[in-house]
């Protein structure tokens, strides 16, 4: 091989081994995208409770604003490090219920609210449920309102609901006298509590969802992430309702743009115990009762034969 031919051959081999000019920017872009993707996944994992819960500390409204008699209650709960924190709540006694001499004939409703604000936002509805025939205990989970403790988690709100249940038992009520009520995220908490207490009077689930994974899938921006692997605040109600023994009333507004009413339909279909479902036409997420109060309250009366 001549010297010129050899040089030409060597030059061709060097060119073949040299990276194409587009390889480096593509590799850099791939690293940036992978880094961003990993960062978002980490943020979804570590910041997940901040997406699920939206507590507010300031109490702006009380049942007194709706001419209701109430008492502040504090329910002690032991935290993970063994110290005691207090759950704050309101006790709204129903005059007719309190007038019943035999405590065993009374009915009480345990009210578990949704993810936002605190019991202030639920004062009017708690009063509405009290007026229809229940004494009502409504609580703030730890981290909300005047309740002590740090930022809530799925585990902590389940514990808080259980401690509220225990408070009613200690007050003298039997499980068969306690109606569990939950709105939105509170519906998932109610389902968890009812699954643990098959002897409860029943449960009302207002505008709740099937699971947190299903909720995340509603948002297009989360669909590119491995949601089932990332979610640790699962609130897997669709799995829990299959084991319910208590009667259940599902209520949902047809115009709910936060949690679609089909989720209540799915919960209803998966529930094997006595069940009813009522859709409130034109009602959104937070106004099922206000949109059609007669339909809302009559649904509960029919459910309980009140």
Quickly describe the structure.
This protein has 306 residues and is an alpha/beta fold. The chain is 41% helix and 18% strand. It has 2 domains: 3-45; 55-304, Rossmann fold.
SSE blueprint:
Blueprint lengths: L2 H15 L5 H24 L1 H5 L1 E2 L15 E8 L5 E9 L2 H5 L8 E5 L3 E2 L5 H9 L3 E5 L14 H17 L7 E6 L1 H12 L5 E5 L5 H6 L9 H4 L6 H4 L7 E6 L8 H9 L4 E6 L7 H4 L1 H12 L2
Parallel strand pairs: 1-5, 4-6, 4-7, 7-8, 8-9, 9-10
Antiparallel strand pairs: 2-3, 3-6
Helix pairs in contact: 6-7
Which key terms come to mind for this protein?
306 residues; alpha/beta; Rossmann fold; eight-stranded mixed β-sheet; two-stranded parallel sheet; 13 helices; 10 strands; globular
What do you see in this structure?
With 306 residues, the protein is an alpha/beta fold. The protein has 2 domains: 43 residues; 250 residues, 3-Layer(aba) Sandwich (Rossmann fold), CATH 3.40.50. The protein is 41% helix and 18% strand. The chain contains 13 helices and 10 strands. The chain has an 8-stranded mixed β-sheet, with helices on both faces. Strand 2 and strand 3 form a beta hairpin. Helix 6 packs across helix 7. The longest helix has 24 residues. The protein is globular. It starts with a helix and ends with a helix.
